[in-house]
Amino acid sequence: MKTFADLTEREVLAVAISSEEEDSRIYMTFAEDLRERYPDTAKIFEEMAEEERGHRRRLLKLYEERFGQHLPPIRREDVKGFLRRRPIWLTKNLTLDTIRKEVETMEFEAERFYARAAEQAEDVGVRRLLGDLAEEEKHHENRAAALTDEILKPDVRAEEDRTRRRTFVLQYVQPGLAGLMDGSVSTLAPLFAAAFATHQNWQTFLVGLAASIGAGISMGFAEALSDDGSLSGRGSPWLRGITCGAMTTLGGLGHTLPYLVPDSWPNAFWIATGIAGVVVFFELWAIAFIRSRYMDTPFLQAVFQIVLGGAIVLAVGVLIGAA
Hints:
This protein is 76% helix and 0% strand.
Protein backbone atom coordinates (compact mmCIF):
# COMPACT_ATOMS: atom_id res chain seq x y z
CA MET A 1 0.00 0.00 0.00
CA LYS A 2 1.11 3.55 -0.73
CA THR A 3 1.03 6.40 1.73
CA PHE A 4 -1.06 9.40 0.78
CA ALA A 5 2.00 11.65 0.58
CA ASP A 6 3.56 9.35 -2.05
CA LEU A 7 0.66 9.67 -4.48
CA THR A 8 1.24 11.61 -7.67
CA GLU A 9 -1.28 14.16 -8.84
CA ARG A 10 -2.44 11.70 -11.46
CA GLU A 11 -2.92 8.96 -8.88
CA VAL A 12 -4.81 11.32 -6.56
CA LEU A 13 -7.31 12.07 -9.32
CA ALA A 14 -7.58 8.39 -10.24
CA VAL A 15 -8.33 7.47 -6.62
CA ALA A 16 -10.91 10.25 -6.39
CA ILE A 17 -12.64 9.08 -9.59
CA SER A 18 -12.85 5.46 -8.46
CA SER A 19 -13.99 6.55 -4.99
CA GLU A 20 -16.82 8.69 -6.33
CA GLU A 21 -17.94 5.82 -8.55
CA GLU A 22 -17.93 3.37 -5.64
CA ASP A 23 -19.72 5.79 -3.31
CA SER A 24 -22.45 6.40 -5.88
CA ARG A 25 -22.94 2.64 -6.15
CA ILE A 26 -23.11 2.32 -2.37
CA TYR A 27 -25.77 5.03 -2.22
CA MET A 28 -27.77 3.28 -4.93
CA THR A 29 -27.46 0.02 -3.02
CA PHE A 30 -28.80 1.74 0.09
CA ALA A 31 -31.64 3.19 -2.01
CA GLU A 32 -32.55 -0.21 -3.44
CA ASP A 33 -32.45 -1.82 -0.01
CA LEU A 34 -34.61 0.93 1.52
CA ARG A 35 -37.09 1.30 -1.34
CA GLU A 36 -39.63 -1.17 0.05
CA ARG A 37 -39.18 -0.27 3.73
CA TYR A 38 -38.55 3.49 3.43
CA PRO A 39 -39.39 4.65 -0.11
CA ASP A 40 -39.06 8.36 0.64
CA THR A 41 -35.67 7.97 2.29
CA ALA A 42 -34.58 5.89 -0.71
CA LYS A 43 -35.13 9.00 -2.86
CA ILE A 44 -32.63 10.89 -0.71
CA PHE A 45 -29.93 8.32 -1.38
CA GLU A 46 -30.76 8.28 -5.09
CA GLU A 47 -30.17 12.04 -5.23
CA MET A 48 -26.94 11.68 -3.26
CA ALA A 49 -25.79 8.98 -5.69
CA GLU A 50 -26.47 11.37 -8.58
CA GLU A 51 -24.37 14.06 -6.87
CA GLU A 52 -21.49 11.60 -6.53
CA ARG A 53 -21.77 10.78 -10.23
CA GLY A 54 -21.61 14.51 -10.95
CA HIS A 55 -18.39 14.75 -8.92
CA ARG A 56 -16.97 11.84 -10.89
CA ARG A 57 -17.77 13.48 -14.23
CA ARG A 58 -16.02 16.71 -13.20
CA LEU A 59 -12.97 14.81 -11.96
CA LEU A 60 -12.85 12.67 -15.09
CA LYS A 61 -13.06 15.71 -17.37
CA LEU A 62 -10.14 17.37 -15.58
CA TYR A 63 -8.15 14.13 -15.60
CA GLU A 64 -8.60 13.66 -19.36
CA GLU A 65 -7.51 17.26 -19.99
CA ARG A 66 -4.36 16.75 -17.93
CA PHE A 67 -3.39 13.12 -18.43
CA GLY A 68 -5.46 11.57 -21.20
CA GLN A 69 -8.04 8.81 -21.08
CA HIS A 70 -6.08 6.00 -19.41
CA LEU A 71 -6.73 5.68 -15.67
CA PRO A 72 -4.09 3.90 -13.57
CA PRO A 73 -5.55 0.93 -11.66
CA ILE A 74 -5.38 2.44 -8.18
CA ARG A 75 -8.19 2.56 -5.64
CA ARG A 76 -8.50 3.85 -2.10
CA GLU A 77 -7.94 0.30 -0.81
CA ASP A 78 -4.38 0.71 -2.15
CA VAL A 79 -3.75 3.82 -0.03
CA LYS A 80 -3.02 3.79 3.69
CA GLY A 81 -5.43 5.63 5.93
CA PHE A 82 -8.74 4.99 4.16
CA LEU A 83 -11.50 3.24 6.06
CA ARG A 84 -12.59 -0.02 4.49
CA ARG A 85 -16.13 -0.05 3.15
CA ARG A 86 -18.56 -2.79 4.13
CA PRO A 87 -18.75 -5.65 1.62
CA ILE A 88 -21.91 -5.27 -0.42
CA TRP A 89 -23.52 -8.34 1.14
CA LEU A 90 -23.25 -6.72 4.60
CA THR A 91 -25.25 -3.64 3.59
CA LYS A 92 -28.53 -5.57 3.33
CA ASN A 93 -31.22 -5.12 5.98
CA LEU A 94 -29.24 -2.49 7.91
CA THR A 95 -31.29 -0.24 10.15
CA LEU A 96 -31.98 3.27 8.93
CA ASP A 97 -29.90 4.79 11.72
CA THR A 98 -26.95 2.51 10.87
CA ILE A 99 -27.13 3.53 7.21
CA ARG A 100 -27.20 7.22 8.11
CA LYS A 101 -24.15 6.80 10.34
CA GLU A 102 -22.41 4.97 7.51
CA VAL A 103 -23.15 7.88 5.19
CA GLU A 104 -21.83 10.40 7.71
CA THR A 105 -18.56 8.47 7.90
CA MET A 106 -18.30 8.29 4.10
CA GLU A 107 -18.84 12.02 3.68
CA PHE A 108 -16.41 12.93 6.45
CA GLU A 109 -13.71 10.74 4.93
CA ALA A 110 -14.32 12.16 1.44
CA GLU A 111 -14.08 15.73 2.73
CA ARG A 112 -10.79 14.96 4.51
CA PHE A 113 -9.40 13.31 1.38
CA TYR A 114 -10.19 16.25 -0.90
CA ALA A 115 -8.90 18.79 1.63
CA ARG A 116 -5.55 17.02 1.93
CA ALA A 117 -5.35 16.40 -1.81
CA ALA A 118 -5.98 20.09 -2.52
CA GLU A 119 -3.14 21.06 -0.18
CA GLN A 120 -0.83 18.66 -1.97
CA ALA A 121 -1.82 19.56 -5.55
CA GLU A 122 0.54 21.77 -7.57
CA ASP A 123 -1.66 22.48 -10.58
CA VAL A 124 -3.98 25.44 -10.00
CA GLY A 125 -6.92 23.83 -11.80
CA VAL A 126 -6.56 20.58 -9.86
CA ARG A 127 -6.22 22.44 -6.57
CA ARG A 128 -9.33 24.49 -7.31
CA LEU A 129 -11.48 21.46 -8.20
CA LEU A 130 -10.32 19.41 -5.22
CA GLY A 131 -10.94 22.36 -2.91
CA ASP A 132 -14.42 22.83 -4.33
CA LEU A 133 -15.18 19.13 -3.86
CA ALA A 134 -13.92 19.27 -0.28
CA GLU A 135 -16.39 22.07 0.44
CA GLU A 136 -19.20 20.20 -1.30
CA GLU A 137 -18.52 17.02 0.64
CA LYS A 138 -18.33 19.06 3.84
CA HIS A 139 -21.81 20.39 3.17
CA HIS A 140 -23.13 17.11 1.77
CA GLU A 141 -24.51 16.18 5.18
CA ASN A 142 -26.38 19.50 5.25
CA ARG A 143 -27.66 18.68 1.78
CA ALA A 144 -28.90 15.33 3.07
CA ALA A 145 -30.63 17.13 5.94
CA ALA A 146 -32.24 19.53 3.45
CA LEU A 147 -33.41 16.61 1.35
CA THR A 148 -34.78 14.97 4.48
CA ASP A 149 -36.79 18.08 5.35
CA GLU A 150 -37.99 18.35 1.77
CA ILE A 151 -38.94 14.73 1.17
CA LEU A 152 -39.74 13.37 4.60
CA LYS A 153 -42.95 15.17 5.53
CA PRO A 154 -44.39 14.61 9.04
CA ASP A 155 -46.77 11.87 7.87
CA VAL A 156 -43.95 10.15 5.97
CA ARG A 157 -41.67 10.36 9.02
CA ALA A 158 -44.42 8.84 11.17
CA GLU A 159 -44.83 5.96 8.73
CA GLU A 160 -41.09 5.35 8.63
CA ASP A 161 -40.96 5.43 12.43
CA ARG A 162 -43.65 2.76 12.49
CA THR A 163 -41.72 0.71 9.97
CA ARG A 164 -38.52 1.09 12.00
CA ARG A 165 -40.36 -0.04 15.13
CA ARG A 166 -41.74 -3.11 13.33
CA THR A 167 -38.26 -3.93 12.07
CA PHE A 168 -36.82 -3.58 15.57
CA VAL A 169 -39.49 -5.87 16.96
CA LEU A 170 -38.94 -8.48 14.23
CA GLN A 171 -35.16 -8.49 14.39
CA TYR A 172 -34.48 -8.05 18.11
CA VAL A 173 -37.53 -8.10 20.39
CA GLN A 174 -39.16 -11.28 19.08
CA PRO A 175 -36.06 -13.53 19.17
CA GLY A 176 -34.91 -11.97 22.44
CA LEU A 177 -38.32 -12.41 24.05
CA ALA A 178 -38.58 -16.00 22.84
CA GLY A 179 -35.19 -16.73 24.35
CA LEU A 180 -35.97 -14.98 27.63
CA MET A 181 -39.26 -16.85 27.99
CA ASP A 182 -37.65 -20.20 27.23
CA GLY A 183 -34.68 -19.59 29.50
CA SER A 184 -36.74 -18.25 32.38
CA VAL A 185 -39.53 -20.82 32.27
CA SER A 186 -38.08 -24.05 30.87
CA THR A 187 -35.14 -24.12 33.30
CA LEU A 188 -37.37 -23.75 36.35
CA ALA A 189 -38.34 -27.42 36.49
CA PRO A 190 -34.83 -28.96 36.31
CA LEU A 191 -33.35 -26.30 38.61
CA PHE A 192 -35.89 -26.62 41.42
CA ALA A 193 -36.14 -30.37 40.97
CA ALA A 194 -32.38 -30.58 41.58
CA ALA A 195 -32.65 -28.13 44.48
CA PHE A 196 -35.33 -30.01 46.39
CA ALA A 197 -33.86 -33.40 45.53
CA THR A 198 -30.37 -32.60 46.84
CA HIS A 199 -30.74 -29.59 49.14
CA GLN A 200 -27.20 -28.79 47.97
CA ASN A 201 -26.57 -25.35 46.47
CA TRP A 202 -23.48 -26.20 44.44
CA GLN A 203 -25.02 -29.23 42.75
CA THR A 204 -28.16 -27.19 42.05
CA PHE A 205 -26.06 -24.41 40.55
CA LEU A 206 -24.32 -26.85 38.21
CA VAL A 207 -27.65 -28.24 37.03
CA GLY A 208 -28.99 -24.73 36.43
CA LEU A 209 -25.83 -23.65 34.64
CA ALA A 210 -25.91 -26.67 32.34
CA ALA A 211 -29.63 -26.22 31.64
CA SER A 212 -29.19 -22.49 30.89
CA ILE A 213 -26.22 -22.86 28.56
CA GLY A 214 -27.67 -25.93 26.85
CA ALA A 215 -30.99 -24.18 26.28
CA GLY A 216 -29.18 -21.08 24.99
CA ILE A 217 -27.20 -23.08 22.42
CA SER A 218 -30.28 -25.02 21.34
CA MET A 219 -32.50 -21.95 21.02
CA GLY A 220 -29.77 -19.96 19.27
CA PHE A 221 -29.29 -22.55 16.55
CA ALA A 222 -33.03 -23.13 16.22
CA GLU A 223 -33.65 -19.42 15.66
CA ALA A 224 -30.72 -18.98 13.26
CA LEU A 225 -31.76 -21.94 11.11
CA SER A 226 -35.47 -21.24 11.13
CA ASP A 227 -35.54 -18.25 8.76
CA ASP A 228 -32.86 -16.53 6.63
CA GLY A 229 -34.76 -13.23 6.78
CA SER A 230 -34.89 -12.76 3.01
CA LEU A 231 -38.69 -12.86 2.83
CA SER A 232 -39.77 -12.09 6.37
CA GLY A 233 -37.54 -9.03 6.79
CA ARG A 234 -36.34 -10.35 10.15
CA GLY A 235 -32.71 -9.52 9.41
CA SER A 236 -29.55 -11.58 9.78
CA PRO A 237 -30.34 -15.12 11.00
CA TRP A 238 -27.10 -15.31 12.97
CA LEU A 239 -27.77 -12.02 14.72
CA ARG A 240 -31.21 -13.27 15.69
CA GLY A 241 -29.71 -16.57 16.79
CA ILE A 242 -27.13 -14.86 18.99
CA THR A 243 -29.81 -12.60 20.49
CA CYS A 244 -32.14 -15.50 21.18
CA GLY A 245 -29.38 -17.75 22.56
CA ALA A 246 -27.94 -15.04 24.79
CA MET A 247 -31.34 -14.11 26.24
CA THR A 248 -32.19 -17.78 26.81
CA THR A 249 -28.99 -18.27 28.77
CA LEU A 250 -29.53 -15.04 30.68
CA GLY A 251 -33.08 -16.04 31.56
CA GLY A 252 -31.87 -19.31 33.04
CA LEU A 253 -28.89 -17.84 34.85
CA GLY A 254 -31.03 -15.27 36.64
CA HIS A 255 -32.50 -17.81 39.08
CA THR A 256 -29.45 -20.08 38.95
CA LEU A 257 -26.91 -17.61 40.35
CA PRO A 258 -28.50 -17.43 43.83
CA TYR A 259 -27.37 -21.03 44.35
CA LEU A 260 -23.81 -19.78 44.51
CA VAL A 261 -24.55 -19.10 48.18
CA PRO A 262 -21.98 -21.32 49.97
CA ASP A 263 -23.35 -24.52 51.47
CA SER A 264 -21.39 -23.73 54.61
CA TRP A 265 -23.73 -20.87 55.51
CA PRO A 266 -26.51 -21.54 58.02
CA ASN A 267 -29.77 -22.24 56.15
CA ALA A 268 -27.85 -21.76 52.89
CA PHE A 269 -30.33 -23.78 50.85
CA TRP A 270 -33.37 -21.78 51.97
CA ILE A 271 -31.55 -18.46 51.53
CA ALA A 272 -30.61 -19.36 47.96
CA THR A 273 -34.07 -20.74 47.19
CA GLY A 274 -35.75 -17.63 48.60
CA ILE A 275 -33.58 -15.33 46.49
CA ALA A 276 -34.18 -17.50 43.41
CA GLY A 277 -37.93 -17.29 43.99
CA VAL A 278 -37.78 -13.48 44.13
CA VAL A 279 -35.70 -13.44 40.92
CA VAL A 280 -38.25 -15.69 39.18
CA PHE A 281 -41.03 -13.30 40.20
CA PHE A 282 -39.28 -10.31 38.61
CA GLU A 283 -38.28 -12.33 35.52
CA LEU A 284 -41.87 -13.30 34.81
CA TRP A 285 -43.13 -9.76 35.34
CA ALA A 286 -40.39 -8.42 33.03
CA ILE A 287 -41.49 -10.86 30.32
CA ALA A 288 -45.10 -9.80 30.77
CA PHE A 289 -44.10 -6.12 30.48
CA ILE A 290 -42.09 -6.72 27.27
CA ARG A 291 -44.98 -8.63 25.71
CA SER A 292 -47.33 -5.81 26.63
CA ARG A 293 -44.94 -3.08 25.43
CA TYR A 294 -43.85 -4.51 22.10
CA MET A 295 -46.20 -7.36 21.19
CA ASP A 296 -49.50 -5.49 21.71
CA THR A 297 -50.63 -8.00 24.33
CA PRO A 298 -52.87 -6.58 27.10
CA PHE A 299 -50.76 -6.36 30.23
CA LEU A 300 -53.10 -8.33 32.51
CA GLN A 301 -53.45 -11.03 29.88
CA ALA A 302 -49.66 -11.22 29.50
CA VAL A 303 -49.26 -11.41 33.29
CA PHE A 304 -51.84 -14.18 33.54
CA GLN A 305 -50.27 -16.24 30.76
CA ILE A 306 -46.65 -15.89 31.85
CA VAL A 307 -47.07 -16.00 35.62
CA LEU A 308 -49.51 -18.90 35.47
CA GLY A 309 -47.27 -20.86 33.11
CA GLY A 310 -44.17 -20.15 35.18
CA ALA A 311 -45.95 -21.11 38.41
CA ILE A 312 -47.04 -24.44 36.93
CA VAL A 313 -43.52 -25.27 35.73
CA LEU A 314 -42.06 -24.23 39.09
CA ALA A 315 -44.55 -26.39 40.96
CA VAL A 316 -43.74 -29.37 38.75
CA GLY A 317 -40.03 -28.99 39.49
CA VAL A 318 -40.60 -28.72 43.25
CA LEU A 319 -42.94 -31.73 43.33
CA ILE A 320 -40.58 -33.91 41.33
CA GLY A 321 -37.59 -32.88 43.40
CA ALA A 322 -39.38 -33.47 46.70
CA ALA A 323 -40.77 -36.86 45.64
